[in-house]
Amino acid sequence: MKHGLFMAGAFVILVMAGCTQPVTGHSNVQGDSSGSTYTEMCWGEWIRMDADETWYISGGAIKINGSVSSTPVSLAKQSDRVIEVTEGGRKYYLYASRIANARFTGKVAGFDGVSLSTAGGASPSIQQSAAGGKGWINVLVKNLDNGSTKETQTDDAGKFTVDGAIPGDTYEITPEGGMPVTVTPQGDGDDVGTITVTDGVNFKTRITEDNGAPYLYANGAQYDFTIKTTNIGTEDCLAATYQLGFDGGLVTAASTEKKIWGTIEPGASKTISLSLKCGAIEAEYAYKKITITITDVNQKIWVDSITVKFYKMPTYFYLQTDPSAAAPVYGVVINPYDNKASRFQADGENLSYVTMPWSSSGYLVVFSGATAATEAVYALGVNRPPAYSASDFENFNEPGRYEPNNTEQTASVVIYDSMMAYLHKNDIDCYRYMVPCPEKEPEFEDSLFQVPSSLSLDESLEWIGAYAIKGGAYTVILNGDELVAPKTLYYGGKTVSITLVGGFAERTVSLGSNGALFTVRSGVTLKLGNNITLRGRSSNTSSLVRVESGGALEMKFGSKISGNTSSSLSGGVDVSGMFTMSGGEISGNTSPYGGGVCVSSFISSGIFTMSGGKISGNTSSSGSGVYVLSGTFTMGGGEISGNTASSGGGVDVSGTFTMNGGEISGNTASFSGGGVYVSGGTFTKHSGGVIYGAAANSTLKNTAISGYGYGHAVYVYEVYVLKSQKRRDFTVGTWESLDSTKSGAAGAWAESMPGNLLSLDESLAWLSANAAEGGEYTFTLRANESLAPRRLYYSGKKVSITLLGGTEERTVSLSSNGSLFTVKDGVTLTLGNNITLRGRSDNTSALVRVDSSGKLEMNSGSKISGNANTSYNGFGGGVYVHGGAFIKQSGGIIYGSNESSSLKNTASTNNGHAVYVNSSPAKKRNNTAGEGVTLDSKKDGSEGGWE
Fold first, then answer.
1. Which residue, 806, 755, 754, is CA-closest to 785?
2. Are 542 and 597 in contact (CB under 8 A)?
3. Which one-letter DSSP state was computed for residue 82?
4. Bridge-partner residues for 634, per DSSP?
5. Model pTM?
6. Distance from CA of residue 42 to its chain's centroid?
7. Which of 1, 93, 116, 108 is closest to 47 using CA atoms?
8. Distance (Å, rounded) from C-alpha 95 to C-alpha 848?
9. How far is C-alpha 775 from the geometric centre of its chain's CA atoms?
10. Which of 627, 670, 743, 909 has the most CB atoms within 10 Å of its CB?
């Protein structure tokens, strides 16, 4: 694996993990492994600080380096991360090796028939697990390392979630009706792939990293992997083939074409070796998925996936000790993403280092384990060796430096990127490093400075003005909230970077008088880091931050710009230079244009790049989230939501707006363009990102509410055209593209709903072409309609459809034999007020059929009537539930065989004239289920309303 040194300005905050009193609710426990019960709060993996030992604590045992220990000990949980161990007359510490309260997810799938068309016109039936998520399945989860068990349940798409997990432990997952499968989640948020419920053949896939690298980086480094797929079933998989698929950003020479594996017997495995590289990512980490599709000779298909976690870049921690030290100094570095601890030690003659993923959240570095005979001076450096000489160690005479540092309340601040201290008997020293993210591999000659921590913000900026040099990078740590007058950041054209952070507490910088809190001029980059809020005024005359030509602003995780009402352009940020937003929040600002951000052109065309963070709750006349007056706005991630404007609730474009990712949701325009309003510039949406439309749920949907308001999602202004032909009222999904410079289908402006769709038939045809994942669509009938059988299926997408009759009773009648609606995978059909479905007296199917993970809901005011299922094996006259779900609320009516001939539903087998549920045991309703009767296919007997 390639290693490259990265350098960044760093500061250190000493934090003690709390070793004086046990945490409330954490018991002290004495005894050996056979007679003790250890509280669940102590479960998991721990590193002993003064020896090369890894402890694993479960309910009734302690394993040390894999073997059960019988040595009597007393455990006192000092904090979430520290246990004090008393063994005889000696005390030492354990430090948490990994997070003990993580979450992982997976999917339980079944098999579903899929029609596969061939060139000859035949349509052989195949069975595929990819679309067969099994909803509402009980899943038993057992931790094989500590013996604990818990139960969870899949959602309607087959997805399950396990909370309180320990990454690195092995879990046995047993879905209801399926075989046990072992998985090993590697981190918080890991996806363990698909577990297929099937008889005979079954598969599970695992991946191992062959280089032994603890962390993988998205910097183009190459890593070798082995994918192992095992037949965990009881029958041969005959003449298997496999095919791989890779998430975007992964580079590999592995073939994505179908390959032959041959027959795989029960218990046998097949392996694939491959090398992967991951391109640069904007976020601090990203999960990348590898999908494997296995097909047998009978066209039965299994789909599984594994995820690989890549981090943005590495950070290096170096440990150096006194050359004359009698014993090594032991330490650990904690990965802030998963609390996993990596050990390092230095013995006086050898420099030790640990590589960690870069994180804006900071790192905890801990030292302990000294006895009276092994006390020592040690030094620590970040992204460069501390490089102290032997004489530096020899002449060090401050054993109390940074002391007392044994509680969080007595933490000290170290203002250098390297430090030296003394570790004494029974001491435990904790340091937290906040490491700014370098834009590239740092050059060691760059000048990095920590502004003295005792200074106020005013004094710090004066200090920078006095000492600023070309290329200087300065970090200012605020000690408290501050009220300051407007500041202009300019240093005679010198290239200067200033980072503001709040350390380990939220700090607010409030504007004391009208004007821009910060005006960032040429050569200056202002970076807003963790725990920093810039707060404006309720009657200001300027944006809160102004970025002039040649200046730059960067917002990172944990920063906020809020509470500014401006009579000028933008309440939040006015950009004529460069603004990069990878995290943080811009909210609660008001202005005539660009409540959150205005990309303007009074000096030069500004450039705004958004890859993360959130712009929400802002108000303006145009573009309350972002107003692109001129210049460019590129959105690759993040969220623009909950903003309110006359036009362009989310974004108003007069310049250039390119969308490659992210989310635009929940915005409101009183005229046009709830999500995006293109008032004169250009808008291009590539594959990636989503703009929600009027049919999404109440939280996500963008809305244009005026009587002249069109384009709930997107509206492109056209001269003399009141209702633009370039508009989208419904959700623009992740894989859809838009181009405001092109018309009609060429620009992907085919969606014209609801304005000119006159019938339910047209509406459902439109939905077949435009259905989006998670889409919620409501169709209100304008008249009675006759409809041929329709199959509601959208390639496994989760889609909700509601039928309403408006203010009058509307009837949808079946025009030819078959089920009026067949509700399939992922689709929920809801019948609302004033809707009647009417069948045929000589039909050969139930009027509505619910398959697999489909769902039918009948609400108040809906009816199902007049259908006779005359098939020789006809089950269910009104509704036949075959693997999906059915709920009838008390207000709806589904007629049975006890009604008049025009209303009744019948089944030739006398099984479920009204409803039949194919389950074990079977459930049926022969008589009318009228108002006041509730039916639920998930409940048995009278509890579910069944006869």
1. 806
2. no
3. E
4. 609, 658
5. 0.42
6. 28
7. 93
8. 60
9. 19
10. 627
Q: Give the C-alpha separation, 304 to 866, whole Å.
A: 44
Q: Which helix (H) or strand (E) holds 511?
A: strand 507-511
Q: How far apart are CA 738 and CA 730, in angstroms?
A: 13
Calpha distance 481→547 (Å, rounded):
23
Q: Which of 809, 812, 807, 808 is nearest to 829 (CA)?
A: 812
Residue 581: what residue type? M
Name the amino acid, one letter, at 702.
Answer: N
Could you give the CA distance from residue 731 to residue 603 in angstroms, rounded to a whole number?
A: 37
Q: Is 549 exposed, middle or buried (0-12, 13-18, 19+ CB in 10 A)?
A: middle
Q: Which residues contact 397 (CB under 8 A, 6 or more apart)?
A: none
Distances (CA, A) of 916 to 528, 715, 825: 62, 47, 19
By three-state DSSP, how is residue 687 classified? Answer: coil
pLDDT digits (tens, 9 = 90+) for 478-487: 888 999 999 9
Per-residue tokens: 738: 């838009």
pLDDT surpassing 80 at residue 806: no
670 closest CA partner among 643, 641, 646:
646
Contact yes or no for 922/899 (Cβ under 8 A)? no
- 311: its two tokens: 């981090």
Place of tokens 């976020």: 283
For 61-78, the pLDDT digits (tens) are 888 988 888 888 888 877
Close Cβ partners of 88 (under 8 Å, ≥ 6 residues apart): none
* pLDDT tens-digit readout, 215-226: 888 877 778 888
The DSSP annotation for 483-505 comes to EE--EEE--TT--EEEEEE-TTS
**Under 8 Å between Cβ of 435 and 363:** yes
Query: 479 — phi, psi (to 5°)?
Result: -95, -10
Dmax over CA atoms of the chain, in Å, equals 104
Q: Cα–Cα distance between 15 and 880 in angstroms, integer?
A: 64
Task: Determine contact, residues 611/640, Cβ cutoff 8 Å.
Answer: no
Integer-rounded Cα Rg, in Å, for the chain is: 32
304: its two tokens: 């599984």
